[in-house]
Amino acid sequence: xxxxxxxxxxxxxxxxxxxxxxxxxxxxxxxxxxxxxxxxxxxxxxxxxxxxxxxxxxxxxxxxxxxxxxxxxxxxxxxxxxxxxxxxxxxxxxxxxxxxxxxxxxxxxxxxxxxxxxxxxxxxxxxxxxxxxxxxxxxxxxxxxxxxxxxxxxxxxxxxxxxxxxxxxxxxxxxxxxxxxxxxxxxxxxxxxxxxxxxxxxxxxxxxxxxxxxxxxxxxxxxxxxxxxxxxxxxxxxxxxxxxxxxxxxxxxxxxxxxxxxxxxxxxxxxxxxxxxxxxxxxxxxxxxxxxxxx
Length: 295
Description:
By secondary structure, the chain is α+β, with helices and mostly antiparallel strands. The protein folds into two domains: 2-25 and 66-151 and 280-293; 153-274, no CATH class. 40% of the residues lie in helices and 22% in strands. Helix 1 crosses helix 4.
């Protein structure tokens, strides 16, 4: 058993490094497809030119295996751990070792700064870094790890709203739209919005960030929430902010919503923003260490 565990750790380590590389240097297929489709429908000539540059940048980064953006982001790790997987762990040591190698090999910019001393270790590690989120999956013997680099420009637009529960469901729409309007071109649109409704102040932000993991061509499974996502996306695109804030009807590529039960006296809403360079990659293995599919 000890030998098997050691082999699994080696497999996880190898895939972690490659998944970080993929997340930072190669746009996911759903993003690439959506940007090409949106670019073909854009009427603003300046924005169309920006789309050409975005697609050229994506191609160059992919072909040369270099980061798609100079801001390689703060690395977030989302772990879906089957309760029957042979290792029950947060895999923190393996993730930290993979980050050290990836930072040097890819390379990645050092993006972890101590908020008190302003010191940057230049290795993307430090106090409570990286961010690791774990969900235990019942009746599963698989392990899936998703890497989501979050750049500073889009992250700075993220918001927490604590609304009146009697008006929150309608009020939150205007809060989201006004926040995007005030941000203009700062988050490098076209953006992707993750929105968390309910829970508490912590949970709604977590829900919003996890909403970004959903494939871009996949609306919410509940029709009322899918309609709400479509409504918000249309209203944001009507703002005429456009690509990089230069005008046009494609300010937002997608809106994804997650919800949770809330306290009767609270209506928390979290908004987490991604720029056009929606960098995300995953790998999944079974209990034998076999790669299940290339996600």
